[in-house]
Amino acid sequence: MNFLKGSLAWIEERTGAMAFVAPLMFHHVPRNAKWWYVFGSATLMFFTIQIVTGVCLATVYAPSAAQAWQSLNYIDTEVPMGWMLRALHGWSSNAMVVMMAIHMLQVFLHASYKYPRELNWITGVFLLLTTLALAFTGQVMRWDQDAYWGLGIGAAIADRIPVFGDQARALLLGGPIIGGETLNRFFALHVFVLPGAAIALVGLHMVLIIKNGISEMPKPGAVVVPSTYRKEFEERMHKDGVPFVPDAAQRDMVFCGVCLIGLVALAAFYGPFGPGGIPDPTLINTNPRPDYPFMWLFGAVSLLPPASETAIMLIAPAIVVLVLVAVPFLSNSGERAPSKRPAMVLLALVTVTAIAALTWEGTTSPWSPVMDGWSSLPTPSEFTKGRTPLEMQGAVVFQFAQCRNCHSLDGRGGKRGPALDDIATRLSYDQLVRQVQQGGGNMPAYGKNLDSAQTAAVVGFLSTLHPFNEPDAMTPGAQLPLPSGAATIR
Amino acid sequence: MNSRLLLASLITWLSGCERPGGPHAVQPVAHDSLAWTQSAFNTNCRGCHSQGAEGAALPLMNANYWAVATDAVVIEAIAHGQGRSMPAYLADEGGPFTSAQIVSLVQGMRSLWGAKDGATGGESVAISPRVIAGDAGAGAAVFSQACAGCHGPQGSAGSVIDPLYLRLISNQGLWSATVYGRSELGMPAWNQAMPNRPTGLTAQEVADVVGWISAQRPKQQRVSDAP
Asked: Which of B85, B109, B83, B95 is nearest to B31 (CA)?
């Protein structure tokens, strides 16, 4: 024990390390800073896990387009506990994004970004962007179908930039198309550039926390006045604060411990993410999905009106980043209590709800056709009873032409187009013929795929689809008698 | 709490091989199992050939069908397609199955839905209409006796001689419809009771009726047997 103390004193005398660390450990934090303040520490813990597991993975992973996918399978199946390493890295990545979002939400709701902590918030915003970039480049590291098509979408967005589109895409992919150099480029970003940036930003974030202190719990009426805030805050901390270690640190440790147990449980039970199918662009029978941090974006982009895509994809992210950075400048003084800032609480609620809803839409993606609907979903019996031979042939054409992949009958089938259970009450025979042949409203034209007999059959079948007590749709004027001598052509 | 026991169980759990998230050897499903047949059918065939009144085309979950159709006929239809709406399923023709898988599929479907004793008994009628010659004149008489009760007199709207219908269905299709029927939709099989025919039709009468319906095709279509 004496030897240990002696060694520490020897080091202390020569480095002054304790003199540097002690203020960090024992600086005073608000007494009322209870469990609300643990989310930042948990985010940092997940980031540390990312670095440790990431370094371990980098010792085995082969960052080459030809071998990456195989090397992941090698890690999963051959390396002892390699699957666990990948599972921890993957789940910790998602957990880091979620925890960071919760941390940010708490800081926003408590208005901790107000004077003098504006730069704490702004470094936090850049940490969020860095983390999302790490998540995206990490998805590319899997080098499977999700990675390939995710890159394709990223490149397509870069391609939309006016004038410099080609150059932006070449910069992203390391060439005109996704190739071997693309993976190396993203590997360099994922293991050198972005973690370096994240570590630097975390350091900056911590320095600012020490410098400005942890904000107190907001109280209605306790307004922030920049000219006097710092002096009063420091007085309060001196008089009423508690040292960070052990008071606040123990809560951080308990919460981080619970998070760690949760992380290990998730990793052990659900295992690693992917790798999915091999990244072969000729395999079109694939259903690529982004990772969860981008699912809401996938949902939003899929639901955009086509005409607005370029404008929204290029401008919206810039606006979001600008607004996030501008938050502490838009209001850096005054009330911090959520009860006194109802508009901000509403804004946070709307944002969280929108992201949750878009994540749900992205996960279920009802706009995707059910690719095997035509061959796996039978025509319900209520739609086959009492039909003529031609209408039954129409039901066959309906399946064969894969209408079912986008349209549902009796609730089963694609949701991209409208359900057709009662289509005959909405479109007349002639309107149905026109819709089938010419398409429109996102529906392809089938005029070249179906001949006149097939069209007549399928429209005959569709004309029978209506509830028994509702009248058929009629073309205006169609009930007038035809002029005598007019040929009736079916 | 016995902490040593807890520690021992934790170590056992961490070092065990059967971790839920751990790597699992992928077990390929053998294509000669009935489970494979059922799943291949559900994915590839069920959309049209379902059971009962479900499905637009001929139901295959149907002992009546398997009593008449020989393996060779079904394999031929699946591999190379048939008529205008049945695609070819052989890999060489762009489909999803190898020829071995198609043979397994047909044998699997027969054991799933065919008669349990393997009885067929329908060979007398299982002759391709391309081989048996039907007499259209005799067929017209059979039609007005046995079929017109439900299908209406010759040439009525929505009938089986609607020229558009005849452009979509092959002679094989006409023959299948006559032989197998759609009993759940009210159309009896060839050997079941129908108006004026308590014991159904003979194989020759089936050929005659198909011959007569086929003869009603629009003129430019008659040359080709199976459009």
From this structure: B109
